[in-house]
Amino acid sequence: MSIIEKALEKQEASPESRAPVAEGEIAACESTPAPKPERSTPQSQQIQVDVAKLLEQGMLSPDAAQGQLAEEYRLIKRPLLINAFGETRNRIANANLILVTSSVPGEGKTFNAVNLALSIAAERDKTVLLVDADVVKPAISRLFGVSDRAGLIDLLENQATFSEVLLRTDIPKLTLLPSGRRHSHATELLASEAMAKLAAEMSRRYPDRVIIFDSPPLLATTQASVLASHVGQVLLVVESESTPQYLVKEAVEMLSDCELVGCILNKTTQGFGLGYYYGYKYYNYGE
User: Fold this and answer.
1) Does pLDDT of 164 surpass 50?
2) pLDDT tens profile 202-242
């Protein structure tokens, strides 16, 4: 072997002298293919919540530990959490799915849905998924500035996956699911078997998470009553001294098949601490 050949052989055996090989070429040379990396949620899927905007509308501050509003939502959330995670949770189908609705528009259902989500997100061992299920008037999507994102409708149409539509927020333990794109048959989609399967899957997939649906008003569309049949608990928001009693009764009749129905008395001037009772499947709260 010549001196030149010996030098070349020595150079090829030296790790420092080897030319860098592309990652794809390494994988091609290996007999066992490299495992595919797990798909992670893109950075763009995390959003920043405009807390100042929430406070301007009188909503609960994410870090508010004290105050009347914080205490009121502690009263509201406690029986809901007991139903979802207490000893009786196995008796209630989809107990961790909570629908917030009202009889007619303007009673404060979105206000209560958001505040309830913020309050539960403050729990040490609970997480919250807030779903904008009011696909006709998606107030939550507008409030959080995510109206242009894929969401619930896209899931029902199999146009997106969970990882593509869930939006993590900078509020710990709070995730959003926007309403998604506008659809001419949104009512039919929410009333479809796909929605029933999606609700059951969400309940099983996140057994330690509370999932709150902000739905349309019961008397304004059929979507709310259909959605109510897929969840374990329903909160009916009633505007104090405003909503006629006959409308409330009509809304209650539409929820007669639901396992658990709670009533939040909103915008009351009677003060805080009215308590609650459980008879006739109702909680009664002062807000």
Assistant:
1) yes
2) 998 888 899 999 999 999 888 889 899 999 999 999 998 88
Q: Give the Cα separation of 114 and 58 in Å (integer).
A: 11
Q: Helix (H, G, I), strand (E, B), or coil: what is residue 220?
A: coil
Q: Is 127 helix (H, G, I), strand (E, B) or coil?
A: strand
How many CA atoms does the CB half-sphere of 156 hold within 13 Å? 25
> What per-residue confidence (pLDDT) applies to 10?
52
Q: What is the pLDDT of residues 91-105, one digit of tens each?
A: 888 999 999 999 999
CA 80 to CA 245: how far, in whole Å? 25
Helix 68-85 / helix 109-121 crossing angle, nearest 10 deg: 80
Cβ–Cβ under 8 Å, residues 255 and 275: no
Q: Which residue has the tokens 């409330």?
A: 248
* 191 neighbors 75 (Cβ within 8 angstroms): no
Query: With helix as H, strand as E and coil as C, how does 183-215 read?
Result: CCCHHHHHCCHHHHHHHHHHHHHCCCEEEEEEC
Q: Name the helix (H) or strand (E) containing 236.
A: strand 233-239
In 3D, which of 131, 101, 110, 134 has the Cα closest to residue 202? 131
Tell me the Ramachandran region of residue 61: left when phi exceeds 0, alpha when psi lies from -120 to 50, beta otherwise. Answer: beta
**Residue with tokens 């506008």, as numbered in its chain:** 182
Q: What is the mean pLDDT of the chain?
A: 80
Residue the block writes with tokens 């107030």? 139
Q: What are phi and psi of 48, to 5 degrees?
A: -105, 130
Exposure string of 242-256, with b = 16+ CB inside 10 Å and e = fewer, is ebeeebbeebbebbe
Residue with the two structure tokens 């061992």: 125
Q: Which run of H or of E encompasses 131?
A: strand 127-132
Is pLDDT above 60 for 276?
no
